[in-house]
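Notes, Module 5: Reading structure tokens.

Key idea: the token line is not a picture. It is a compressed description, and you learn to read it the same way you learned to read a sequence, by spotting repeated patterns. We will look at two proteins. The first is printed below with its tokens.
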Amino acid sequence: MTAHSRFLTSFLVATALMSASGCICVTGPSTGSSGDIAFTWTFSGRQCFEVPEVTQVNIQMPGQTLQNNGNYGCLNANTAGIKLQNFAAGTYNYTISGLNSQGTVIYQATGKVTVNGDVSAPVDLLPTSNATGSVYVTWTLPAGTPVTCQYIAAVDIAVDNGTPQSVSCAAGGTTPGVLLQNLTVGRHNIDISARDSNGLFYYRAINSFDVFAGGATTQQFSLAWIVGSAPVKWTFSNGVTQVTCAQAGITQVGITFRNAQGDTTVTANCLNGGVQGYQVPYVYYGDYQVLLAASGTGGVAYYSNSTSPPTISVVAGQFPNVDSPNPTPAILMTP
């Protein structure tokens, strides 16, 4: 290999290493020109208005004293950046941090910038482990539902099994929706439940969503029924023959639904629309044992079989009436 070839090969290797490092190293006395450094910044590619959590940007350059200790707004003269003036020629290290209102660093970038005359330095700051984001939550109710927002007292929103936040039902149908703030970056679980003033929940959505550092995304969820109707029919026997509500002197019937969570009792008229029975309109979905009790003429008590009570299955979003064959036959009540 000729001397010329050796020189060329060494030059190419040195150039490749310099390029791979992403910087130009100044090892000797500066022979370049002084100048200004115009830093501009983004946050994971987002602009200042997209990261309202960032209230301040701090620049640190070892060996350099910056105005206001390096603290600047995200926007300066309507520009996402700042011009630092009068730097001697050379290479400078920098750390640029985006801070929230508590002074916590939530975005950061480090690097080098070389001055040889005026230089522009675009920097993209990446989220730290302290970064947070926000989400706007909206929802829809089942199509054609008779239980609209006017009947819903509140919607409870819980994130990651935390304490629910109660908001109005209508808030989920507005733009941009209900804002959930200061959420850590990553995937979260959400539980949205709609209830009336008596604490009966009609709809629910359990889902998940992703939070990105800075700014706010919008998530829409479809609330689904968690209740259905439970049609219950009954007959009476005085021990000899079957009797009607009137013959037994019964005006009201107590209906108890029993499952692993306990008993729930409602009271209904004995006769409803000419039928001895009642459509309990909103019952949580699941399987229940049904027990009936009533009081007739002279205080005679009537009960259904409590040893082997009949069962009924309530299906969310299905609302059969008392003419439904479920359950069949009608539950017999005796003294």
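Here is the second protein, with the sequence above and the tokens below, as before.
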Amino acid sequence: MAIRFKGNGRYAYKTHNKWNKEKKKYETIWTYLGVVNPDTGEYQKKHKNKQEMLVLNYGDSFALNEYAVKSGIYAMIEKVFGKMTQSIFALCFFKLFESSAMQHADTWFEGNYAKIIFPNAALSTQRISDLLKKIGNERLLREFFKLYLKKVYSEKGVIIDSTGLPNDISFPLSAFGHHGGNIEKGTRLLMVVDKDNSQPLYFRYAAGNIVDVATLKTTIREVKAMGIEANYALLDAGYYSNTNISHLFDNDISFLIRLPAGRTIFSNLIEQTKYTLEKPKNRVIHGKRVLYIQKVAVTLYEKYPAFAYVCCDIKRRADETVKLLTEAEEDKLSTAETIKKIKTAGLFVLLSAADIPVQEVLPLYYLRNQAEQIFQISKSHADILPLRVYSESAFRGILFLNFLCVVLYLNLRNQLPDKTSVESAIKELRNLMCKVYDDNSIIPQEPNKKQRNIIEAIKNTVGKF
């Protein structure tokens, strides 16, 4: 090493001699190393200008990854799925950020900060197909849910609901079934949701031609095997049957369920309360709705004491009556048929194993909307449809991926500032870019006020996992 003095500075150089053929003599080649510290005699390496290599969408993946790590959900997935974790989260981020088929995940990945967070993720079409089959392994799913439920379940009851996943997949789970007034080919997705904290707890599936009423006992048994002691169940009318009600009573599971209108007990209750229901003392205000609700003690199947809540929604009755009278002639209904339908317009009955105060029964029953909301997130934001898998293991994999997306979506939403939706937050954060340099350093661009508020809210989360 050689040192040159310039003014008050000392500069280190590396030197070597090189033969010059033209001049036919050796020349000294000087290579600058850096500035010499006069106290230590050491030199500081010269600064090399960084070369900008990439500009990536930054804010959306950065924020969601902050939540996944700080909340502990990332560590939970990593404990069960190991090396697959980065690919799982990269695919979840893609599904939440982009409304597009998974065959485009690799293209998105190349332009997003997710490729820096998850350098080992493999999102080619073939790799995704293999990943879905692997994460659909039943042993891994059981291991995950046992770990997950210990952290999440409030032990205050569950909501059980189902939805149809229409598809033309050629495997036994895809079959024609009747649901929501339509006949379609598909598969049933059943979701178990925590009644107290609205967290999705567990999912299972059944062939499309298996009706809801036949799935309740198996669902309760499965969640019990996973560690959920379902001591309370909120159910829709599709789950009402002699067998199911008996099973709930015999296993000490309290419940609230809507009574199907076609049952004899429904007609008997309507007849029993026709002169007493619409009295001022039975008036209940629920949000912007005004109803009459009368509680009636009943005995089910001559052995189970329960309570029926006969409800009349005043606005709904008026709307249904207008519709019935308008369409009666078009539908060629007789006068007797028209009168019969008008008598039950706006009426519905809720059945409970426990004595619930009349003012509390509707808020409790409409907690069921939490399950509907989760199905909406699955289909609208987690992009579960259309289904393009052709094996049961891959089918389980896509359902688990959807489940994880819903968990991330719901909990991210809880961390955001007031009046900020997940969709608007993602769009806002997507515009926050970063630059990647040739030494792999990252320089995010300055966030605006909205972006900063969103990121700070997510980074400060305590999390629940």
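Summary for the second protein:
- The first helix runs from residue 59 to 71.
- The mean pLDDT is 86.
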